[in-house]
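Field reference: sequence -> structure
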Amino acid sequence: MKIVLIAALAALTVEASPRYHAGLRRLDGKIVGGADAIIEDYPHQVSLEAFDRHSCGGSIIARNLILTAAHCTHNKDAQFLNIRYGTSLRNQGGTVVAIAEIHDHPNYDPVTTDFDISVLKLSSDIDLSHTAQIIPMISVNAQEGGRKALVTGWGALYTDGPSPKQLQVVELKEEDRKACNKAYEGEITERMICFMNPGQDACQGDSGGPLISNGVQIGVVSWGYDCADPLYPGVFADLANVQIRDHIDGIVEMK
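Structure field:
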């Protein structure tokens, strides 16, 4: 039986410990095997906070819109969430902005983690600067295969390990869709893409972060089995998929 682990945003002022077990689906994205990074190099990166503590990652797609994973916001109340931007440090520095509206993809499925994207409308515009910039998205139906990409986030340096204060970055390589689907026994849909690199991965607790290739965002950290396991690539929501983009573009047009 497939078991889905959903990290609830507990009504606490401390960051909830990630729930994770080998062989079970994880919803997350903390960085394993990465290196220290600075926000000036990745100014699109934001932290989604629950009760003023880091919960998930996200990216700036318009001055008042943040893209993240739907499993980070599903059934959550916007009044308990905010974003922090313009800082390399977790829970510290930068600027905090309240979230006015949550727009999960209407077809998001918490069991299969399909359609795992959400657009957050902010209560006020982001002040764009060298530490806060809009990231362009990949073209719809763009060709896939053989790509290298970067993932950023504030996350555990190893499975169940502590989360560093400093932003982390890791480079991953695209995994063949058919091979990835075989590894996951048919769970990979058209709305998903797979990336991996031995000993490096997104893992435990920082879902919603951006997957960047050649200066454009191509995916959103979504789910996977284990952390940096060579048998299981990391799974990302595919921003080139028309069903994913129709939802995002519709919100952008209404902003």
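Note: The helical segments are 70-73, 177-183, 242-254.
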